[in-house]
Amino acid sequence: MKNRLVIGLFYLIGLIFLSFGISLIILAGLGAGPWDALFVALSNNIGLTVGSWTFIIGFLLIIVNGLLLKQKPDFAALITMFLIGSFIDFWLLVVFSDVVFVLVAFRIVLLIVGILSCATGIACYLQSNFARNPIDHSMMVFHKLTGKSLAFSKTFLELSVLVIAFFIGGPIGLGTVLVAFGIGPLIQLFYKPITSFRGRICTEPSVK
Fold this sequence. Notes:
Blueprint: H1 2-28, H2 34-46, H3 50-69, H4 77-95, H5 104-125, H6 134-146, H7 150-167, H8 174-201
């Protein structure tokens, strides 16, 4: 029971950190991460909220990940996408709805804090096998199928989505480059110590 509670906390806290980081990156206005640039572009061009597109694209990725692994799609991951999408809309439409950041220096700080928050959040909720974010599960699928590191896998996928986001008018800029090249190595950096910390308070085996 204790182990399940601990893992559940890692999962929930991780999603909160991730959604908060995504929101800060978008609010910084210096270019969103590739996936988020895609969601913002879809929201601007078609309608619906950024959180709604996070859920929709997540659903499609669940199908693709299942096909690549030749397994039954992990539809439980819809819970994760619903939570992330809801948290993102909460931060953007409720908490920061009337906030405008003007100073460039402050926006850069927001961008950096957002990236660190995203990497920390991903490293946290990857401690659980339950309902992984299909975006980051794609990273794990690529890692498993190719044998490449988590850092390489994340960076490769981010750059691929970046190209798509660019062509449909996503907010591309300094932040996009930093997320594309920086978040993968940061996940790799944070994953091991967080896993070690989890191991000290939870007797279940660490997630590989």
